[in-house]
Write a structure and sequence with these properties.
By secondary structure, this protein is mainly beta. It has a single domain (17-467), classed as 3 Solenoid (Pectate Lyase C-like). The strands form five sheets. The protein has a 15-stranded parallel sheet that branches. Strands 3, 6, 9, 10, 13, 16, 19, 22, 27, 30, 34, 38, 40 and 43 form a 14-stranded parallel sheet that branches. Strands 4-7-11-14-17-20-25-28-31-35 form a ten-stranded parallel sheet. The protein is elongated.
Length: 471
């Protein structure tokens, strides 16, 4: 559904080396605070009354650790924090700094308005980032980009919006952009202790990429309390098995987003229709997930509100050698998805109907206590909960699943032969807006059953589940 492109050219250096941030060498030195303002001067003292003009000058001034305070106004500037230690960039109290990339040229490959690499205890908070966009298919604009090996990076209270890749080549997966991205591309040092909290990420043109992503060697992270909306591809993604690490490490557990939490986020209106990357001869696909684990492991997805996306939540692995496992999806509210509410398993099996594409496996995952309501708003017969290929040993228990109307299947429409081994499906509460227990439909191993009793008798599933008269 959503083939991911491989990483493009490495990020070019954004700033002169004279502004590089050195390590915080003297822990006893009290962190300093400097100020930056659009009307300042880089030859000034950097005080509140004599601020610097560029953010990079402020970062250079706190190379021993400290805080760069941005006064309100517009900054047509990128900023780099490489090998930084104990540095915070923040908005002045009650003021609104905007990093506007609309007059900047986006180079080939990944480039960002805020670039963080090989750093420790760095924070970016309270900024608005916008306008960084290109029509060059080879450019990948990013709002905030964390890469290399980092520890304790916090991205909080920022808004990243109205930016991306505007190339219009229909059907091409080569166009990409991100709002907030963490690429753990070092095999020797992970990105750890990453926090992405209470940001707003919206109105992005993403091509084949994601609004917020953790990819590769990212171990121990939290994506919490964010509002992500009105983007034309995936809202939050945790990825493994792409070419993020060198070939020798690609199919190892180092190259997987892992030990993470995705909780308390609101993700809505994530729609791929109109995104050139998702055009085919049959039209636009409903391919954009609100929340997606693609090859990640040991991840908790809890307490999110996922509304009016193409797909609510997906746990799968696009790479044929990959897997999504030990993911817990619990207590989420998923409603009004165009295609399905929750899905797991590979979306293709290498057969003719998939154009020969092979995908990975999904196993040892838990889906519990979720509320799925009124999904499949396209009313094409797709279900609230979809089980696909190469899936086994998953638990689907204690969910409330309310179908939108007549003919909408409630669980596992295309759980293929070879999938479903060892699954536990039970303790769920089903209902349908325009069907009763005798006329509602379920599917298992590509067989459709009409009536709750017929489905349970034939499959042995949902023995303790109930069908309620109302949603």
């Amino acid at each position: 559904m959503k083939p991911q492109v491989l990483a493009v050219a490495a990020l070019a250096a954004l700033v002169p080396s004279t502004f590089a941030v050195s390590a915080f060498a003297d822990a006893s030195h009290a962190p300093s605070t400097v100020y930056v303002a659009p009307g300042g001067s880089d030859s000034a003292a950097g005080s509140s009354t004599a601020p610097f003009a560029t953010i990079q000058r402020g970062v250079s001034a706190v190379s021993s650790g400290g805080t760069v305070v941005l006064r309100g106004g517009t900054y047509a500037q990128r900023v780099s924090l490489h090998n930084a230690n104990n540095v915070t960039i923040t908005a002045a109290a009650g003021e609104h700094p905007v990093l506007d990339g609309s007059k900047l040229t986006v180079p080939t490959g990944r480039s960002a308005m805020v670039d963080i690499a090989d750093s420790t205890s760095v924070a970016v908070q309270g900024l608005e980032i916008t306008g960084y966009r290109t029509k060059d298919i080879a450019g990948m604009p990013i709002g905030i980009y964390v890469h290399g090996g980092d520890a304790g990076v916090t991205i909080s209270g920022d808004r990243v919006h109205d930016m991306g890749n505007d190339n219009g080549t229909l059907g091409s997966m080569a166009m990409n952009a991100h709002g907030i991205a963490a690429y753990g591309d070092s095999p020797t040092r992970s990105i750890s202790g990453l926090v992405i909290d209470h940001n707003e990420v919206d109105h992005l043109h993403l091509g084949a990429s994601e609004s917020v992503v953790v990819n590769g060697n990212v171990d121990g992270w939290r994506i919490t309390g964010n509002r992500i909306h009105d983007d034309n591809n995936i809202g939050i993604d945790a990825i493994g098995f792409e070419a993020t690490l060198p070939p020798a490490y690609r199919y190892t557990d180092l190259n997987r987003a892992r030990n993470g939490v995705i909780s308390g986020n609101t993700v809505e209106n994530i729609i791929s229709a109109g995104n050139p990357a998702y055009w085919s001869s049959t039209g636009w696909c409903n391919c954009a997930d609100g929340l997606y684990v693609d090859g990640g492991t040991h991840i908790d997805i809890a307490g999110n509100t996922v509304h009016a996306d193409d797909i609510g939540i997906e746990v799968a692995a696009e790479n044929a050698k990959g897997a999504a496992d030990h993911v817990t999806v619990e207590g989420n509210a998923v409603s009004d998805s165009r295609y399905v509410g929750i899905t797991t398993g590979g979306y293709c099996d290498g057969g003719q109907d998939c154009g020969g594409v092979q995908t990975g496996t999904s196993f040892a995952n838990t889906f519990s206590g979720n509320v799925l309501r009124n999904n499949n708003t396209d009313h094409d017969g797709s279900p609230e909960f979809l089980i696909q290929y190469h899936e086994s040993g998953n638990r689907i228990t204690g969910n409330t699943i309310c179908a939108a109307g007549p003919g909408t299947l409630l669980i596992g429409t295309v759980a293929r032969s070879g999938s479903g081994a060892g699954d536990v499906v039970d303790g769920n509460r089903y209902s349908a807006a325009a069907a009763d227990a005798g006329s509602a439909r379920w599917g298992w191993h590509s067989v459709t059953y009409t009536g709750f009793g017929a489905y349970r008798a034939a499959t042995g599933l949902d023995a303790s589940s109930v069908f309620a008269a109302t949603c």
